[in-house]
Amino acid sequence: MNSDSDLQIAGDILEVPHLLAPAREHPSTVAEFAGLARAVAADRAQWAPLVEYDATTRWYHRLRTGPGYEVWLLSWVPGQGSGAHDHGASTGVLTVLQGELTERNDRGARILGTGAQYVSVPGHVHEVVNDSLEPAVSLHVYFPGLTEMPMYGAGARTATAATARQDVSTA
């Protein structure tokens, strides 16, 4: 009987770089995009100096782009909301950086506090609102990059993409 183990024969796989898959330069899975959002959120010095608040509309700033994705920083004063919308063919990862936001969809509502993440799949209709008494800041990663954002009126959650559109950079 051979007592040699695979580890003794091949060595530690972590010590053999040519056997490992190369590290990806950019995210390509939902989990990797959620990880990207968490990494940006953790680097407060990267986003906090950019935040502005606008009493008349949600403020937004494109923070970063990469192959097939974009990262947006948004601020929300109390009472501001996105309106019911979807993200067309894009998947979105929303991360609350500061404060509290409420995400509403056909299943109900959920409160997202600082650090919470929410994934929205293509075609999923929802709205995000700051129902709290304090300003909020959120990070949004869209992949592929956001090219459309169909808006839906109250109760029109089955509307088609031909419904009125809003500037895609605002949600």
Write the layout of secondary structure elements.
Layout: H1 6-10, H2 30-42, H3 44-47, E1 59-66, E2 69-76, E3 84-85, E4 91-98, E5 100-105, E6 108-113, E7 117-120, E8 126-129, E9 136-143, E10 151-152
Antiparallel strand pairs: 1-2, 2-9, 3-10, 4-7, 4-9, 5-6, 5-8
Describe this entry's structure for a reader.
The structure is a single chain. The longest helix is centred in the N-terminal third of the chain and has 13 residues, at 30-42. It contains three helices and ten strands. With 171 residues, the chain is mainly beta. It is 13% helix and 33% strand. Residues 155-171 have low confidence and may be disordered. A hairpin with a 2-residue loop joins β1 and β2. It has helices spanning 6-10, 30-42, 44-47; strands at residues 59-66, 69-76, 84-85, 91-98, 100-105, 108-113, 117-120, 126-129, 136-143, 151-152. Strands 1-2-9-4-7 form a five-stranded antiparallel beta sheet, with helices on one face.
